[in-house]
Structure formats: C-alpha cells, structure tokens
Design brief:
The protein has one domain. It is about 10% helix and about 20% strand. The protein contains one helix and two strands, in the order βαβ.
Length: about 90
C-alpha cells in the first residue's frame, strides 16, 4: 500500500484443481487424491489504515523456479532469477 496510502484493496484468489482430474479414474489412488486436493477460494481486504488488531503484512516476495515460466499455459512470464529479490533494509 506504499504506492497509494489510505486505499483499500480486495484480494481474491482461487484454485480450480478439479479441472485436472481424470474423472473416469475410480481407482483408490485417484479417489484419495481427489479427496485430499480440491478446489478452493479465499478473499480478504487489505488496507494501509489499521482498523483493529489483526495481521500486519510487513514484506512480500515470490519465487519462480528456473526454466518453469513456460509451464503455465496462457501466461507470458519472463525468466526469473534463481534467488529471491533482496529485502529492503
């Protein structure tokens, strides 16, 4: 929220792993996998103004495995470095 102090952002994420299942496979291994890993979604409001006691985000970073940028269909991801970005002092 450093770029726009005072703003509030709705962060929404989802994962639709069932799209990858072989629904015709009714073997025990497949059924266990399907029961353990399902679709999910979540959302939260993030603001730079503390409204009450809660979780504070102090830093973030992400990491993409080397040579894996082309593994995500439908996206164009530039090559990533092999180490996380330096943390600010």
């Amino acid at each position: 929220m450093t770029a726009k102090p005072g703003s509030t952002v709705l962060v929404v994420v989802s994962e639709v792993i069932s799209a990858l299942y072989n629904h015709a496979d009714t073997g025990i291994e497949s059924m266990v996998y399907k029961s353990l890993f399902g679709d999910s979604a979540g959302a939260c409001l993030v603001t730079s103004n503390p409204l009450q006691a809660g979780i504070r985000i102090t830093d973030t970073w992400d990491y993409l495995l080397p040579h894996s940028g082309d593994r995500t269909p439908g996206t164009s991801i530039p090559p990533a470095s092999t180490s996380p970005p330096p943390r600010p002092p």
